[in-house]
Amino acid sequence: MVGRRRGQPRPPPHLALTPAPREEPPMTDTGFTLTVDQNKYLPPGASEMAAVLAVECTTAQAPDAEVAEVIVIDRSPSMGGSKLAEAKRAAKAALDALREDARFAIVAGGHDAREVYPGGGALATATAEHRKNAAAAIDKMVIGNLTYTGVWLRCAADLLASRPAAIGHVLLLTDGMVNQDAASYTADLDYCAGKFTCDAVGIGTDWDPDELKQIADRFQGTRAFIEDLADLTDYFTEVCGKAMGKAYGDVAILVKTPVDAALTSLRQVYPTLQDLAEHRRDADARGALFPLSAWGTETREYLLEVSGPAWPVGEELRAAQVLVVRGPDREVLARGNVLMCWADDPVRTGQVNPKVAAYTGQERIAEHVTAGLAALAAHDPATATSHLGTARRLAGEVGNEGTARILDRLVDFDPGTGTARLKPGVSAADRFQAEVGTDRTVRTPTKRTEQP
């Protein structure tokens, strides 16, 4: 039970964190569940708490939500030859992954955004005839000029606006850096905010991973690097297939904190690392709302950090109420509590929740990889080796085998001694794989903490 242990002094009234009300808003049964993992025990004087929120959605039947897909292909001069040929092949294969009732469009990007199919600012229905006609239009795509990525995304947003009830998704392929001036590019991204989810993929090694990271974070999608162009078709098919499985839009996490407690941060930690800070909205004086991208049958996990006053030993308090909500009326889909309990038992307070530890470790991997790659670019091999070696050690400790394999392209790591040696001749592709690959995390087993 959330409350005050008998015999302990009552905190001053102005610090009171009220327990959950007796009558909570009813939850709608839509297949969403929320699991909270944490070690609620804090040593005397501590005021910081971290918890992992696992949100799972299961759809028992085929999704009936309307979905819309816009595939955007870079056609700048550097896309000539095999790049454009493979991009065309991948785009045509992606058409087969679309649901027959889905809406779609194909856009070719240069200094402008050319609507390859169907044209006229519209979306086509993915019937057999439209797929055939779209494939023919893709075959006719020719090289253009420049990389005005913001213009392309704005075009996609306008196309998707023709079906406002649809769950919109953009698949963006590029091989170069953004040529737009910063002001217009930022204005285009601002224009598109909240209008779709975007997965961005780079090919070749002339694009900027930071630019794709900005797009992935801004539009709550992913960034990817396809090193072998032969793999591009499988990537397009997989991404479009996942987009077709989305069933619920307008879902958000609502975090409510009482007086004198504060939400420090909320970050997605599975299946990819993503800071949600820029998506935060004030719901009311004590609530923060974080809109999320559309959901299908999937699990995502988030690391929540809160701070509160250091209360006396024996007090157990709800530091945050977490609600998964949907729609403007904030229909409650799932709920959970983040607790803080002060104890003078070092055994209890010294235990680190394994999920919190694992995801904190995977965030540290990404930080060390970023620092190591920066040191490589600055021709500082000693610093690069230190950071990349630490990242490789952490990858082994948290069981992220995929990241470990990627880092093995950069360093020779000895698990016995924990030492690393930078490999000679690290290529641009090696660096791109390391930077983009560490976005992805592995899920740790759930061990739910006892709740009141």
What does this structure look like?
By secondary structure, the chain is of the alpha+beta class. The protein folds into three domains: 3-60 and 248-346, Sandwich (Immunoglobulin-like), CATH 2.60.40.3670; 67-244, Rossmann fold; 355-437, Four Helix Bundle (Hemerythrin (Met), subunit A), CATH 1.20.120. Helices cover 30% and strands 29% of the residues. The protein has eleven helices and 21 strands. The strands form four sheets. Strands 1, 3, 12, 15, 16, 18 and 19 form a seven-stranded mixed beta sheet that branches. Strands 5, 6, 7, 8, 9, 10 and 11 form a seven-stranded mixed beta sheet that branches. Strand 13 and strand 14 form a beta hairpin. Helix 1 (82-95) packs antiparallel against helix 2 (128-139), helix 1 packs parallel to helix 6 (232-244) and helix 10 packs antiparallel against helix 11. The radius of gyration is 24 Å and the shape is globular. Residues 1-22 have low confidence and may be disordered.
Percent of residues in helices comes to: 25-40%
Can you tell me the CATH architecture of the largest domain? Answer: 3-Layer(aba) Sandwich
Strand content: 25-35%
- The radius of gyration is 24 Å
Distance between the termini: 5 Å
InterPro entries: CLCR, VWA_3_C, VWF_A, vWFA_dom_sf
Domain VWFA: 68-239
Region (Disordered): 1-29
Protein name: VWA domain-containing protein
